[in-house]
Amino acid sequence: MKINMDKWAGDIIEDEKVKNLPILFFPCLPTINKGVIEVINNAEAHYENMKNVIAEFPAMIGAMTGMDLTSEAETFGCGVSFSDTEAPHITGEIVFDRASAESLQVPSVNDGRGPVFVKAAGLAAQNITDRPTFGGMLGPYSLAGVLMGIERALKATIKDGQTVHIVLEKCTCYLIAYAKAFKEAGANGILIAEPTAGLLPPKHCDEFSSKYVKEIVDAVQDEGFFVVLHNCGNTKKLVDSMVSTGAKGYHFGNAVQMVDVISQIPPKYLVFGNIDPARVLNEGTEELIKETTKDLLEKMKPYKHFVLSSGCDLPMEVPIANLKSFFVALEEFNNGE
């Protein structure tokens, strides 16, 4: 369904009540008796869980595809290990030097498992008509880091930047096509996960991440398509670089204090974050979850452009009861309790 996303964001900023959009998909799979392998390979099953997440947590202000951050690298040729109880993970890199960077082929957006996520987003956009649908994908430097191996990619940014740029240009070419596929399918936006850029100093973040993210943003973002840039690293000194991409939304992990980052971002942009998905939402008690969430909400009172979220993608093992406590905490806060 077409939505004016500029108005959607503006309404959130103007509303007196704080909204909630955690990166939530995999924890709800057990409630529909499905495993990870099925939903990352079957668009209808994937959409079924997107619909299920909204049914379980109707306060979610958007529907989101699952964040399987191996799909893009697998399409380029990386090996992937699969399990029904956790998100897939990459088993080995494929770019080792300048020669392998130059020989790397840009795959078609129709290859691999990307079309599963695109079709699922399209089904959601057609059938979940009371809120926007977001696709998810890796950012360019994070994808390059998977293809090269993170340690090799980080060293190369210092010693052999040209090789990294060769890989980044190819990654960005594919990711622009992937983002356009989500848009053409009817999705209302994408979340670009660029966590590896959080390991870079600001100058390198500009050169090796934000420059390429901006190319993606410029290719797809408009009043009907909203880009959120996620970085769960230590981003306090990277905010200016992130904002230079032109994305209209920014999502932060729990490695930073939200007040340190949101204070640097113009109030016209939405800022999402950042309850710890592991120690709080997965392992925490109901009391800890409520206390931590309300403490963050109190600190965010001066910032109308804040949207409550998890600090990162929620792992499958997060209990549904804990997620309910997270949503109840926001409801109680909005009601003055």
From TrEMBL:
Residue ranges of domain Uroporphyrinogen decarboxylase (URO-D) in the record: 53-332
Q: Name one GO biological process term.
A: porphyrin-containing compound biosynthetic process
CDD domains on file: URO-D_like (cd03465)
Domain of life, per UniProt, equals Bacteria
UniProt-listed InterPro entries = Methanogen_methyltrans, UROD/MetE-like_sf, Uroporphyrinogen_deCOase
GO molecular function terms listed in the Swiss-Prot or TrEMBL record: uroporphyrinogen decarboxylase activity
Could you tell me which PANTHER family the record lists for this protein? METHYLCOBAMIDE:COM METHYLTRANSFERASE MTBA
Its recorded name reads: Uroporphyrinogen decarboxylase (URO-D)
